[in-house]
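Schema walk-through. Below, the input block comes first and the output block second. Nothing else is stored per chain. Lengths vary across the set, and this one has 451 residues.
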Amino acid sequence: MNRSSLNFKRFAFSIALFLALSFLTHSSEAYDPLDPTGNITIKWDIMQWTADGYVGVVTMYNYQKYRHIQPPGWTLGWAWTKKEVIWSMVGSQATEQGDCSKFKGNIPHCCKRNPSIVDLLPGTPYNMQIANCCKGGVVSSWIQDPPNAVASFQISVGQSGTTNTTVRAPKNVTLMVPGPGYTCGPAKKVPSSKFVSQDGRRITQSLLTWNITCTYSQFLAQRTPTCCVSMSSFYNDTIVNCPTCSCGCQNNNTNPGSCVMGNSPYLQQAINGPGKSSNTPLVQCTSHMCPVRVHWHVKLNYKDYWRVKVAITNFNYRMNYSQWNLVVQHPNFNNLTTMFSFNYESLVPFGTINDTAMLWGVKYYNDLLMAAGPNGNVQSEILFRKDPEAFTFSKGWAFPRRVYFNGDNCVMPSPDQYPMLPNSSPRLAQQLVNTIFVACLSLTSMLILRG
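--- output ---
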């Protein structure tokens, strides 16, 4: 084999390896090991044909266990394949009408080639509503609030074709919540949806159904993390803070106004100033610069139980986190005894291994995590029963393995920084030696006096 042929094969192998690694990296971005099958499925049902198109119902099902869509809600977009227009909508609206100048008499609701659709707000008149609409774009997660994990709207489409063979599915579907994060696949024809009447005695079905599946990637949603974890314990005075620059660094030279001090006289102006959007975070200046911090404190140790305190603090001055949730992975959740002031649901992402819990606030009590300030925190305590075969305070076992806030993975401290047991501290060990030495001297003195 000559040298040029060998070099060519090495080059080809390098390219193949690079492409394979790139594919694996890209494909793993949207994979969540704690919710491997989670997605948002959009079902597009054609219910009846019209003179120049059809009337359809579009429904979004949030099949994600703990990731939800919070205010200001979702925006659904797509590109028409032909020259379709939207004649009317019920339960939602297009953000722009577009150029409808060629129409005489009846003017369509939207003539854009790539419409953007948003949900209507609560309080919309009943004649403009359908089931599962009008919640301001807020969609709950499947576990936290199943009845509100669905959103729907009705759409009347024209110039689209009036048969199963002439109509075309929308393409390039996008789901903004309100920022990026979701990647939607192509529309696929599936068996027609079936609908049961209220009395349960009749079943109807759609004329045609397409499914569109959207998956979430934290990397696409935001290039930097959105939360971090700090730790402490009763058996060690050390408080392990969030890693420095967990969610970014303070740099007033390149990014002025990226954070604000809590005692700044210009705080209110920075929050509510002209052109300020609630979607743009304004965080309190900290070493970690995260909008949210989760603190795990090992509080008490009993004979058969041990207690943990969990506190969530909001450092974002522009955001109230409605329907927040926390996902924690720890091996002792299979022996959870009591959860105080939070709701709890076991996720069991790995078969029968019960080591992951979803926590969220009690409705009307602490389900709203207020913006940064005196009320910008929620907390609860967890009581675990000890498993004699697994329980230990050594080597950081008492602290969580992984923490998610609102579906985003939080930055954890380095394991070598976790609060250690006192017997692992040289200073405390020396104190113990000194105590034993003094006790021995006292015992010796007593024996001499008695002798």
